[in-house]
Amino acid sequence: MTIPSLATHPGLWTAAAMIAAIVLCSTAGEVLTAAAMKSVGDLDEIRAHSGLKGAIRAVLTCPLFFAGVGFLALAFFSLLLALNHLNLSLVAPASASLTLVTNAIAGKLFLKENVDRRRWTAAVLVCIGVYLLAH
Amino acid sequence: MILGLVAVCAPLADACLSRGMTKLPAISLSHPATLVIAVFTPWITLGIALLIGFFASYLTALSWADLTYVLPATAFGNVIVALLSRFWLQETISLERWAGIVLITVGVGFVARGPSLTVRPAPVVGEERPR
Asked: What's the complex ipTM?
């Protein structure tokens, strides 16, 4: 299946779908990676006790880490595809900012982080910022 | 230091990836293998090297801070992306986009002023153990 219109001027919905793919894959990857790193513990302390090899071993023996990396890889290829059709000044800030909002929600739901009013206010400001970026 | 590396490496990597991908012909969804071939072009390779530096710093930060703190605290990279896009890639950035970037930066400032780690309820301490 080819999408000729994609190659030159992607429409609004196509651009939104490309950015949404990056955001969803990034969020899943970052939440899984954050959960993995919390289960591993402070890497600075591990490196102080067991050296760099010990720190790398601690990360690489955590299954959650590989699940996170898998989703981050999907996000990366989604980013490459989007950059082939859209401007960096739209794709990078829009995907990064929306990921911030989805991560705030996912952090509260799955990682039980304290997402207080300060963080929600930031999320609203970021949403308005993304709306302006899309114009 | 670690958060600074995350903020700098990510936008530089994005700029390299963008430079590399815009030099390539348009990629169709019917040929996903061309995305893999793109990985071996110089700009994309440099972008990936920077992403590895970003990822190492990012993992270290995540081991001692909340995800909802690390991401916003390092989102100043958006401003760096805008500057790189404008002055290196020669992209045009409208006044509205600049306003959007400013709002995002203000939002990031809100989050960054809070605590970096969620405090979990700890067992009561302070009483002397019986010897």
From this structure: 0.70
